[in-house]
Amino acid sequence: MDGKIRKSELELLNEAFNIFNTATEKLQESYQKLKEETEKLRKEVEEKNQKLEETSSLLSSVLMSTNNAIVAIADDNSIILSNKKYKEYYEIYGDQFLSKLIEFKAEGSYEFDLKGAIFRVHIGKFEHSDVKGWTYSVEDITHLKELEEEHRRDEHLKSMGVMAANIAHEIRNPLGSIELFASLLARDLKNDNEKRVLIESVLKGVKSINSTISNILLFTKEVIVNKKEYYLSDIVDDVVLYLRHLMNDKKIKFVNKIDENFTIYCDNELMKQVFMNLIHNSIDAVNTGGIISVSCYQEGDFDIIIVEDNGCGINEDFMKKIFIPFHTSKTKGTGLGLSIVYKIIKAHSGNIYVESDGKSYTKFIIKLKRG
Ligand SMILES: Nc1ncnc2c1ncn2[C@@H]1O[C@H](COP(=O)(O)OP(=O)(O)OP(=O)(O)O)[C@@H](O)[C@H]1O
Ligand SMILES: [Mg+2]
């Protein structure tokens, strides 16, 4: 009986041990699993943290590199966040920049100007934890506005150009008749000095209107070049003959240094318009007794033609705008002449440069490719 009891006690103890062992093993297994699980979670958190860090550094670098100034301003006007561009603007425009921004307290897009610059601002609301306020994204649109203005001006000019071309066209025919009849009259009156002077004034006026009309028509139309080989001296002689009366009035000495065999490939009529404008400008620029000369030479594949005068010269600032239409220093000038010259030379795939000391001479240098 005693032995039986001991045995069953032993068995029980054994069983208890077995149960304890199994429980321990299971516990160990669970612990291992828990450990693995914890490790996995730790890694996940670590990865997430890293991603978060990467995203936040990406965001901050995007914020910093964007060309818009970005600033978040809380309702109490304290700055919560700002980027590099904002700081740049703040440095330039100071507190006024911030004051302008905080005037806007509603979502949307607005424009404002400050010290000659124009800005566009996009505003959004933000709320984070217990801070509330507005986010401002500001861009400098001064250049954009200038381009818009330029485009508007271009459109305006285009429509004015069409109108001017129509008027010029209408004037040209009666003007042709006036020129013809005035020339006939001048011929008939060659013995009557007094009347001949009067009729020659009419002819001068007609020629002047004619050259302005040619410029207006060339300005509004696309230049179509019909190139052939011409003697340069023929072209220049024609122009000088046409402008002779103006040169005589000022007792100008015209020096033709062109070799009579020198030829250029060009559109005859268009090239006449080029010399007409250049020589006319020189006539205006020189004093009584001034000198105007035209010379030419070859340089490799290029023909170089120079129109030079000893007139008042062109100052450096004015020279930068000289080929832009409507830049004139003359009360009666349209400022179209040189822009036409430029257009024609470019249409010939050539180039034109100007040189002057601003007081005693001006040189226009035309460079044309041979052939
Ligand atoms: N040879 C020159 N010497 C000095 N200034 C010149 C000379 N050529 C041009 N200029 C300057 O350049 C300006 C522009 O010349 P451009 O021929 O384009 O117009 P404009 O002569 O004023 O008017 P127009 O349309 O009647 O020709 C002139 O007003 C003048 O100030
Ligand atoms: Mg001119």
Helix-strand sequence: HEEHHEEEHHEHEEHEEHHEE
N-to-C span: 136 Å
| The CATH architecture of the largest domain | 2-Layer Sandwich
Small ligands present: adenosine-5'-triphosphate, magnesium ion
Output the strand order for the largest sheet: 2-1-5-4-3
Q: Shape from CA axes?
A: elongated
Proportion of residues in helical segments: 55-70%
Q: State the CATH superfamily name of the largest domain.
A: Histidine kinase-like ATPase, C-terminal domain
User: How many domain regions?
Assistant: 3
Low-confidence stretches: none
Q: What can be said about the biggest beta sheet?
A: 5 strands, antiparallel
Strand content: 15-25%
CATH topology of the largest domain: Heat Shock Protein 90
Helix run count? 9
Number of strands: 12
Quickly name the level 1 CATH class of the largest domain. Alpha Beta
- Calculate Rg over CA atoms: 43 Å
Q: Kindly report the average pLDDT value.
A: 90
Secondary structural class? alpha+beta
Describe the structure.
The protein contains nine helices and twelve strands. The chain is an alpha+beta fold and 371 residues long. It has three domains: 76 residues, 2-Layer Sandwich (Beta-Lactamase); 77 residues; 148 residues, Heat Shock Protein 90. The strands form three sheets. It has a five-stranded antiparallel beta sheet. A five-stranded mixed beta sheet has the order 7-9-10-12-11, covered by helices on one side. Strands 6-8 form a two-stranded antiparallel ribbon. Strand 4 and strand 5 form a beta hairpin. Helix 5 crosses helix 9, helix 6 packs parallel to helix 7 and helix 7 packs antiparallel against helix 9. It is elongated, with a radius of gyration of 43 Å. The model has no long low-confidence stretch (mean pLDDT 90). The chain binds adenosine-5'-triphosphate and magnesium ion. Magnesium ion binds next to helix 7.
